[in-house]
Write a structure and sequence with these properties.
Number of helices: 4
Number of strands: 0
Helix content: over 70%
Strand content: under 5%
Largest sheet: none
Distance between the termini: 58 Å
Structural class: mainly alpha
Shape: elongated
Order of helices and strands: HHHH
Length: 90
């Protein structure tokens, strides 16, 4: 319940892409660390390199998505016109 409230609050303050990317990264890193450090999970023999590469790619992809989503493109011609204040014509 608390996670849903925090997610909704984050969506009100940030862009959906950035919030989702942070959530994806958290949902990947936290359970992996808990499994490996607390629950005694192990990586299948012979798959450590593939697992590590996949994990790093997932996290880097989510971080890149969050970074590039926060960069807004310059306004186009129609957006500039829409943001211009209205002037009275005589």
């Amino acid at each position: 319940m608390a996670a849903t409230v925090v997610f909704a609050m984050a969506l009100q303050k940030g862009s959906p892409t950035t919030v989702s990317a942070v959530m994806f990264t958290t949902n990947t890193v936290a359970p992996s660390l808990v499994g490996l450090l607390v629950l005694g999970d192990r990586i299948r023999p012979g798959f450590a390199v593939a697992g590590g590469i996949g994990f790093v790619m997932a996290v880097v992809g989510a971080i890149a998505l969050a970074h590039y989503a926060s960069m807004s493109p310059p306004p186009g011609p129609t957006e500039r016109r829409a943001n211009r204040p209205l002037t009275a014509r005589a």
